[in-house]
């Protein structure tokens, strides 16, 4: 008989919940993924339960119905059998965090994945307060020993399990050859929103420090004014936008990464970078800033101190590529399975 687990994932952009369901299926668990919309690529025996409670922003009409569903939704998830594991991948607001904390207090087996411990990056407002309550009741899972050390003072119990591998994206690019851009110009990718914490302000300095000819492929959500500003700052270097600046699907992002010679990741204060892990799964090399959160995945030669060094590293890599990661995808996938088996073995 397969053990059952419910995965609560209100994030409609990041495929983390699907990837976790696939990993747990390989370990013999049956996953019920509660999410905002029907998700594809789930393993056999697992199911996706779309829920209106996880839908987008508040609608202009039928606000009362939306509010009631938002209130009832987390409660219905929390009412799963207390002997079965509930894994909270993200919390949306104070209410769902509070409901799952109460479930834990009455004996429900609940795990909370804390991507950003408060000592590293604190979530503000009631949402952050709710996360704090849940962290002091549930078993907190983080993705590195360093994050565990940063989390211990704000959690009841902490366990370490590796970030699930992005197996769906890897499967999407396994067949066929790498898409080459028109002409012989290399393509350097940038994944993420045009936000300060993503290092977008450093892209101009990185470009100026690089003497090589390459095109920047922007892969993330952006309006036309944001893209126009980016193009003006990097001129005369060409900037292309995947999917015209709309939020790319998992498949579009995977294919975009496949067309890149490498990805530049000028992120500061990284805990665990989903973008770097995605590039790792697809097989696209990465160069980025050195921070404690990336040392487990990026090789020393791929970790740089500033924009000038990052621009020069792009030149060096385009001339003579190196192994950008500390391990192979297969090694990372095996480590993830072993660590999750160890953590969830407490339920057996």
Tell me about this structure.
This protein is of the alpha/beta class and 348 residues long. It has 2 domains: 3-160, Rossmann fold, CATH 3.40.50; 168-328, 3-Layer(aba) Sandwich (Rossmann fold), CATH 3.40.50.2000. It contains 12 helices and 13 strands. It has a 7-stranded parallel sheet with strand order 3-2-1-4-5-6-7, sandwiched between helices. Strands 10-9-8-11-12-13 form a 6-stranded parallel sheet, sandwiched between helices. Strand 11 (262-265), helix 10 (274-282) and strand 12 form a beta-alpha-beta unit. The model has no long low-confidence stretch (mean pLDDT 87).
Query: Helical proportion?
Result: 25-40%
Strand order of the largest sheet: 3-2-1-4-5-6-7
Q: Within the CATH hierarchy, at the fold level, what is the topology of the largest domain?
A: Rossmann fold
Structural class: alpha/beta
Main sheet characteristics: 7 strands, parallel
- Using DSSP, what is the number of strands? 13
- The first-to-last residue Cα distance is 12 Å
Order of helices and strands: EHEEHEHEHEHEHEHEHEHEHEEHH
Mean pLDDT: 87
* CATH class label of the largest domain: Alpha Beta
CATH superfamily of the largest domain: Glycogen Phosphorylase B
Instruction: Identify low-pLDDT runs.
Output: none
